[in-house]
């Protein structure tokens, strides 16, 4: 990392922590030179970088000012929770999800805000594919055999080595590798629930989780989620009193689409006060946890788990290699059942991709890559957020995530997100409409924007065009359609 | 293929078709020279090859004779079918399966007759891994992205090109790639059944199928299976009259462990007379279908399917690359549902391994490799069969499969297969005991021997030692244990 980037990151942190507020003048170039002992050129580079990220603006003869960001964050409770687990309308949601995925598959040229995938430009494709090629070339005689559950030994060792970063210890024997995080979630749900059971999920939440529940014959009990702090624990406690909940399924660290991250005290209360006394397992989706924008990753809920009730699920799909399908589960007390279900579901996880990821971790390339990727994502999220502020209609609200790479945008109430999504598609822009993130079709005036791509004219033009469509729709007469749950 | 190999194959076929019977003198070397217009050396090489395969023996001053193979095949109906779908005792079976898998994982030095995996020695590991390395190095910018369902376009095209070999046509759009055949079977069952439903399976059958049923909350209705012709259709018809069956799950071509292959007329009757009128789907496991010992592969039941009721499931795990986890399903009328379930189960199939398999098929290396592998497997199966005849106790019976690489051995009735399996493990020999192939713990005096490895001293010694253990157990007093269903 260059010195000017370090300086820019420091100032960005102060802006994010509201030490500098919108409209404030930040330290002058001269002051920065003295404070940090750097050249004028370096100080200027730092500010130019922040300007590029959309965080500060130069005012002639005056200096650099924190750019006005008039967007508040969405309401704490953006949706009602369900009193009872509600049946998920799979086919309806599936069709809309399919539109989003199809734009990704068939139209890579579309402005890519729809699917939460990191751009190949910020992934170490050459290095990781070299590792894959090496694994394919150099492994021993049984190189290509089934790697039966629990899976690749060195990969499990590398994962166990890193668990303390998340605040807990785990043995390699207590890890099972999977075909991506999605299989891990499925195994966790199948190990802890039976068809007909109710599962508490946050709302909004990742549509894949909702669809997995439906496909397993499980009911979703939606718990309102706060854009910063995640599931509303009081609401969860109420739901646990009213309904027999078989498990909770929460993305505790940089949830999708909210970007929320549970504070330690919430994690402790969730595990120690709410779940452990009732013996309710927590399926913890940690797939975004490595993508913190700050210096360290938050602890996993597993850190407070004394009973083996927290099943940690993750993968390398969001931070290294989506196409490898290498994920894992740390199933706690459900280890034997999970291992058996893994065998029955896909028999084994691909051998070479596991070997490549293990080698990538062993060599230290993993940490190096993640440091760079975190910086890139932080900058991308800030740029997209600034562009939304510039181009979208007045009255919108946008989340301010501390990790991951998605933004959740609340539009004026009368703007229909699905209609916006379809108009955007017609202009070759892919976004994800709010209703696919709910079991009840709620979040009708929200959209999710993925910030997986580095800033470029294509991204900028896409956001400007999307803003124009949204502005036109917001300016149109409030449509007479049926009232919608939000 | 060398000329002497062609000649040997022709004679082997005549032996297998009982044109030459055990004890018969086969054509003399001189006659062969005249018949085929070859040199004496070539004729001798052909017989030496057949001798090596355990099919003929030289008698001094007399010539070559078909080796006596006193083993009859097992009874047509080796087990009773269930009147009702019976609950599968998952944990009991799972523990025995785990022992077999563990010997594979932890003890590669054990004599390897337990797990049905082709030896790396007969797989084109260097070529396929070069293809994987090339896919990892050379693909475009999105090389490592998710390959969302239906999966890799070129792989689906290559599969569609080959479907006519199995007697039907399919569009690439009607194929979904999966993480191995096991995921394909799971998706097929989930698309056609709901928890609590009954599924007709042949017995004995692959334990993974039985465990998958259990894990999905499905009940198994066991249909007796003939060692040559597969499921007993009269028994199936009776079961369909008595029980509401949601689907059939049959390995129609070289089943595991029987090695049976349904004749065309049985396939026609199954699809046209039994299933189509009742609207019952057939999940057809074709994972061994490419491993025919004869010149052409049998047709799939799909060839008689006019209603989209046959879901064909397969993979490259048994014939190319077990570790790649590349499989597929041709789901007929259940396409939309299967594609959705695939997305929910594992999101996507590994990208690079699919690309490598597609390239392997596109280049023609696939067909070249399969030709050699079929010859190798035919020879290995014949050698193991001959060694069993030599070393095992009198009164055993062994299947005579026309494809695949497993043998199903019926021991004297008082020999307990699980006890034999454990004694064999203690002598560093891995086998698969019969009861794991039944939902009811039947087949107590059967074992499955995998012939995935080329003949070697280690294989020969392993079979001799296994024969000694079995002979000792057969000679021992009939044990007083509880009577067992077979």
Highlighted features:
Aspartate Aminotransferase, domain 2; Aspartate Aminotransferase, domain 1; homodimer; four-stranded antiparallel sheet; alpha/beta; 486 residues; 15 helices; eight-stranded mixed sheet; Arc Repressor Mutant, subunit A
Structural write-up:
The structure is a homodimer. Chain A has about 475 residues and is α/β, with parallel strands linked by helices. Chain A has three domains: about 5-65, Arc Repressor Mutant, subunit A; about 90-120 and about 370-475, Aspartate Aminotransferase, domain 1, CATH 3.90.1150; about 125-365, Aspartate Aminotransferase, domain 2. The first copy, chain A, is about 40% helix and about 15% strand. Chain A has 15 helices and 16 strands. In chain A, the strands form four sheets. In chain A, strands 4-11-10-9-8-5-6-7 form an eight-stranded mixed β-sheet, sandwiched between helices. In chain A, strands 12-13-16-15 form a four-stranded antiparallel β-sheet. Chain A has a two-stranded antiparallel sheet with strand order 1-2. In chain A, strand 12 and strand 13 (about 405-410) form a beta hairpin. In chain A, helix 2 (about 30-35) packs across helix 3, helix 5 packs across helix 12 and helix 6 (about 155-160) crosses helix 12 (about 350-360). At the A-B interface, helix 4, helix 5, helix 7, helix 8 and helix 11 of A face helix 4, helix 5, helix 7, helix 8 and helix 11 of B.
Write the layout of secondary structure elements.
The structure is a homodimer of 486-residue chains.
Chain A lengths: L2 H14 L12 H8 L3 H13 L3 E4 L3 E4 L23 H17 L4 E2 L12 H14 L14 H10 L13 E3 L1 H13 L5 E6 L3 H9 L3 E8 L3 E2 L1 H10 L2 E6 L13 H12 L6 E4 L24 E6 L11 E4 L4 H12 L4 H12 L2 H27 L5 E2 L7 E5 L6 H10 L2 E2 L1 E2 L12 E5 L6 H19 L11
Parallel strand pairs in A: 3-14, 5-6, 5-8, 8-9, 9-10
Antiparallel strand pairs in A: 1-2, 4-11, 6-7, 10-11, 12-13, 13-16, 15-16
Helix pairs in contact in A: 1-3, 2-3, 4-8, 5-12, 6-12, 7-8, 7-11, 13-15
């Amino acid at each position: 990392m260059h010195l000017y980037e370090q300086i820019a990151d420091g100032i960005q942190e102060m802006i994010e922590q509201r030490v500098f507020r919108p409209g404030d003048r930040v330290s002058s170039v001269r002051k920065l030179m003295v404070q940090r002992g750097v050249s004028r050129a370096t100080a200027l580079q730092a500010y130019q970088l922040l300007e590029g990220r959309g965080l500060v603006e130069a005012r002639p003869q005056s200096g650099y000012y924190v750019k006005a960001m008039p967007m508040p964050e969405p309401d704490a409770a953006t949706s009602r929770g369900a009193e009872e687990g509600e049946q998920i309308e799979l086919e309806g949601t599936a069709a809309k999800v399919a539109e989003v995925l199809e734009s990704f598959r068939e139209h890579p040229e579309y402005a890519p805000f729809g699917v939460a995938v990191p751009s190949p430009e910020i992934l170490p494709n050459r290095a990781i594919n070299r590792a894959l090629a090496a694994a394919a070339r150099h492994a021993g005689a049984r190189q290509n055999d089934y790697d039966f559950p629990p899976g690749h030994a060195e990969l499990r060792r590398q994962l166990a080595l890193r668990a303390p970063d998340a605040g807990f210890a785990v043995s390699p024997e207590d890890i099972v590798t999977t075909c991506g995080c999605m299989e891990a979630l499925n195994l966790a749900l199948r190990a802890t629930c039976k068809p007909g059971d109710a599962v508490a999920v946050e709302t909004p939440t990742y549509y894949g989780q909702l669809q997995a529940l439906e496909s397993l014959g499980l009911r979703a009990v939606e718990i309102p989620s706060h854009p910063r702090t995640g599931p509303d624990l009081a609401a969860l406690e109420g739901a646990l009193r009213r309904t027999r909940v078989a498990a909770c399924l929460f993305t505790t660290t940089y949830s999708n689409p909210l970007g929320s991250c549970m504070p330690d005290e919430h994690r402790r209360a969730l595990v120690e006060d709410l779940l452990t006394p009732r013996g309710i397992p927590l399926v913890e989706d940690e797939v975004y946890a490595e993508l913190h924008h700050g210096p360290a990753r938050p602890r996993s809920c597993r850190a407070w788990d004394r009973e083996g009730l927290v099943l940690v699920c993750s993968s390398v799909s969001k931070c290294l290699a989506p196409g490898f399908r290498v994920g894992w589960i740390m199933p706690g007390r459900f280890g034997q059942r999970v291992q058996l279900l893994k065998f029955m579901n896909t028999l084994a996880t691909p051998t070479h991709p596991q070997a490549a990821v293990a080698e990538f971790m062993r060599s230290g390339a993993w940490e190096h890559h993640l440091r760079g990727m975190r910086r890139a994502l932080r900058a991308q999220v800030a740029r997209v957020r600034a562009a939304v502020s510039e181009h979208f209609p007045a009255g919108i609200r946008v989340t301010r995530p501390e990790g991951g790479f998605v933004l959740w945008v609340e539009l004026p109430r009368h703007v229909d997100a699905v209609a916006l999504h379809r108009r955007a598609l017609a202009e070759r822009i892919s976004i994800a409409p709010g209703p696919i993130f709910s079991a009840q079709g709620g979040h009708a005036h929200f959209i999710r924007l993925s910030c997986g791509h580095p800033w470029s004219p294509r991204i900028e033009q896409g956001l400007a065009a999307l803003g124009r469509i949204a502005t036109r729709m917001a300016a149109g007469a409030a449509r007479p359609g049926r009232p919608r749950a939000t």
